[in-house]
Amino acid sequence: MSKTAERLRSRIRARHALPPPEQRAALRKGAGLTLQEVASAVGVTRGAVWHWEQGSREPRGDLLNRYLLALNVMDESA
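RESULT FIELD:
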């Protein structure tokens, strides 16, 4: 399989793994984290995380992968 095809498959899997917006906020709050703490961990602004939790925007590319990793860690700590 080509690298391009594998990247595309990886992006599709990541999109399907992203929980709904309300669950994203619940995971963060359940872990006792602020928007700023999650933003710093992912490497984005506090506003970006807020938009992702509201469902008005979605993380993309490498940010999606880093946000998914953060959500998984938050889910394990809750």
